[in-house]
């Protein structure tokens, strides 16, 4: 078989960031304010701190004003709600992101429910997930949106093809399954209670893996020529690992979105894109 194609999210995201930067520069030159993105980080998880730093830097580089709120590990739900309320009311803030996971004593549902849907750049509120389910316009979760954009950029057909999604989370698995269905794929979702997942995965023309289990997916899960999107990300002693064992699947896949350099950079790009969309709606600028 021919060498697999690497789906380069790093390069595509950089290209798209350039386009966003140019659009933001154009409205700034017309006298508009800068778009504002608030990032709320609760606790001292080192991986979360790195992501938040990367997100802020990416925003700044394209002309979005990042603001952050860092709360101590021992914060209460009320403490977090107060910060959400403050950003909800702030006219300089277009997007609010609450970094997941939150410490166990905090009610995640209650916090998410407080974010104004028009500022929900993660697309995680019931309002935006409902809009997505109904096929209405809203803010779409970043990782799923980035995966679809990556597939599209590489001209990977979805209509009539079999897609299998490993994982059903609100952040990734569930919304990516909805988006693939909307693009006319036949979608199956696998989760931790699915018996013989390999047998199902082996039917996939497009396999999206968001299980959060390092190197879960090996050659037994792969139909020859399949397009494999690795979403998982794990920080180990030997660098970053995905949910897909790249060496073991390499001789079978048709295309692979790798870790790092695949979905991660696309996720950050879509966060910026959602912030830009929210900003234009707030400022009454045309789409
Ligand atoms: N690159 C990026 O931009 C991003 C990467 N991630 C990464 O993606 C991964 C998934 O994230 P997220 O969706 O938030 O994780 P969650 O832990 O919320 O969800 C994991 C899902 O995978 C399922 N699952 C777990 N183990 C298995 C298994 N052995 N076989 C089949 N399904 C399984 C779970 O099933 P059940 O529902 O039954 O528990 C659950 O639905 C993580 O590694 C995360 O770090 C996340 C967001 C963005
Ligand atoms: N409310 C919320 N929204 C999220 O979108 C969200 C979240 N919480 N919690 C955690 C996960 C994880 N996540 C990543 C984003 C970028 C990279 C990324 O940029 N990865 C680079 C590598 C960066 C590195 O070196 O660590 C890559 O894959 O190439 C990874 C993971 C967003 N998440």
Keywords, please?
287 residues; alpha/beta; Rossmann fold; 2 domains; 6-stranded parallel sheet; 3-stranded parallel sheet; binds NADPH dihydro-nicotinamide-adenine-dinucleotide phosphate; binds 5,10-Methenyltetrahydrofolate
Task: Kindly summarize this structure in a few lines.
This protein is of the alpha/beta class.
Provide an overview of this structure.
It holds the Pfam family THF_DHG_CYH. InterPro entries: Aminoacid_DH-like_N_sf, NAD(P)-bd_dom_sf, THF_DH/CycHdrlase, THF_DH/CycHdrlase_cat_dom, THF_DH/CycHdrlase_CS, THF_DH/CycHdrlase_NAD-bd_dom. By secondary structure, the protein is α/β, with parallel strands linked by helices. The protein folds into two domains: 87 residues, Rossmann fold, CATH 3.40.50.10860; 123 residues, Rossmann fold, CATH 3.40.50.720. The chain contains ten helices and eleven strands. The protein has a six-stranded parallel beta sheet. Strands 3-2-4 form a three-stranded parallel beta sheet, with helices on both faces. The protein has a two-stranded antiparallel ribbon with strand order 9-10. The protein is globular. The protein starts with a strand and ends with a helix. The structure holds NADPH dihydro-nicotinamide-adenine-dinucleotide phosphate and 5,10-Methenyltetrahydrofolate. 5,10-Methenyltetrahydrofolate binds next to helix 2, strand 4, helix 6 and helix 10. The site of 5,10-Methenyltetrahydrofolate (GUE) has 19 residues, from helix 2, strand 4, helix 6 and helix 10.
